[in-house]
Amino acid sequence: MQLTILGGGGFRVPLVYGALLGDRGEGRVDRVVLQDPDAGRLRAVSRVLAEQAAGVPDAPEVVATTDLDEALRGAAFVFSAIRVGGLEGRAHDERVALAEGVLGQETVGAGGIAYGLRTVPVAADIAARIARLAPDAWVINFTNPAGLVTEAMSRRLGDRVIGICDSPVGLGRRIARVLGAADPAEAWIDYVGLNHLGWVRGLRIAGRDELPRLLADPALLGSFEEGRLFGADWLRSLGAIPNEYLHYYYFNREAVRAYRAAERTRGAFLRDQQARFYAEAGDPSVSALSAWDRTRAEREATYMAENRQSAGAGEREADDLSGGYEKVALALMRAIARDERATLILNVRNRGTLAVLDADAVIEVPCLVDANGAHPVAVDPLPGHATGLVCSVKAVEREVLSAAESGSRATAVKAFALHPLVDSVTVARALVDGYTAVHPGLAYLR
Q: Which residues pair with 266 in a beta bridge?
């Protein structure tokens, strides 16, 4: 069975391949095709994968190509992890926004909109190619902004595209751990929202909802990352545990202040860090896998560092440095390929799950997965404050999709202006001017 990875020269590809190496049984992936426009990055990542596979019997074959159509032919699954504009583009997204006094984070606020505007046209083209060249393939999307990009691709691929994210999984694992679950993977997580905009409203262990016990115990709340990030009082006020990305909304001024004061933005840090890695991994005298391991450890340890610093949340715990999206991807592929039924938190079309959104809106909720794909589980309605935020951000996403389809600059301005973290038409116009000046990929806006 062939897995094609778009963005195959990306830094996190070894995580996926490492998970595949441990997979056994019928219906496993035995051929991995890496596709990336950057041949140098492909060579570096291929070296890492070769070292990973050393001594592993029946390791999946790895093929690398810069040709997108060639990579798609024969794929049973397509894993999309592209980055339009590269990390230099992400650094621009952050700096243009911060210059206007608003957040430029990759998936949240102005930065997320800019990233979406240049990614959606590329993702839509990829979806059209998949429909033509690999119509039976299942597409697993990790390209950010994951919910927005999944919705763009679903307009051509329907339910055969499923978005994944490791944030809800990590959040649920941390909560289950502090509540004493013997196996955090067996806890039922009542989670609902959009990608990077969701809340855990309940967590059942052996059929009993243990979240009220957590919210009532300040010591327990202070023992894991989100508890320290948001503070016990605010979590009790919400009656839920938010996804870590909601820190950008609930503590927006503090986050913007911290990011403006930082020596480098996150995008600039990753750009410089990965440039060193790819240079090192291209040296035949150096272990590419060792270089990757060192770089990954530093990357994970510094994740959302500015937010943690502004909240006084301290360093990340060792258990939170291992990633997780590759495990979600493998579980999703296994459930579909082998009809091994699983429950996973995924980005899928709404289909009436949240009554306040239409059927085609992509949301992030628990899903039952089998050979026929991912089926969202019925959930209780969101409280008013969460409903308002979800509807507001989904409306912005729809304006981004409309701008990408029409090429309308006015619609792009509307998308920025309507976002709750921008909330100014004047700033929105300045953002569109700033982004179109630095991003060739936004030249289509007129």
A: none
Handedness of CA 255, 256, 260, 265 (dihedral sign): positive
368-395: pLDDT as tens digits? 999 999 999 999 999 999 999 999 999 9
Q: What burial letters (b/e) apply to 68-99, b meaning 16+ CB within 10 Å?
A: beebbeebbbbbbbbbbbebebbbbbbbbbbe
Identify the pLDDT of residue 323. Answer: 56
Tell me: the pLDDT tens digits for 173-224? 999 999 988 787 789 999 999 999 999 999 999 899 999 999 999 999 999 9
The closest alpha carbon to 434, from 101, 93, 109, 86, belongs to 93
> CB within 8 A of 304, min separation 6: which ones?
244, 247
Which residues, other chains included, contact 182 with Cβ-Cβ below 8 Å and sequence gap of 6+?
Answer: none
Q: Are 398 and 362 in contact (CB under 8 A)?
A: no
Residue type, 354: L
* pLDDT tens figures, 208-221: 999 999 999 999 99
- Structure tokens belonging to residue 274: 């990965």
Q: What is the mean pLDDT of the chain?
A: 94
- Other beta carbons less than 10 A from residue 324's beta carbon: 17
Q: Does residue 379 contact residue 190 with C-beta atoms inside 8 Å?
A: yes
Checking if the pLDDT of 321 tops 50, the result is no
Is residue 322 within 8 A of residue 310, CB to CB? The reply is no
Q: Give CA–CA dist 247/251, Å, rounded.
A: 5
| Residue with tokens 């944030």, as numbered in its chain | 167
Cβ pair 86, 92 in contact under 8 A: no
* Lookup: tokens for 40: 């140098």
**Cβ-defined contacts of 281-290 (< 8 Å, 24+):** 281/44, 281/45, 281/47, 281/48, 282/40, 282/43, 282/44, 282/47, 287/51, 288/44, 288/47, 288/48, 288/51, 289/14, 289/47, 289/48, 289/51, 289/52
Give the position of tokens 């301290």: 314
Residue 83 token pair: 């980055």
| Residue 5: strand pairing partners | 34, 79
In this prediction the pTM is 0.95
Note if the bond before 420 is cis, omega within 30 degrees.
no
User: Cα–Cα–Cα angle for 385, 361, 368, nearest 5°?
Assistant: 95
CA distance 61 to 395: 43
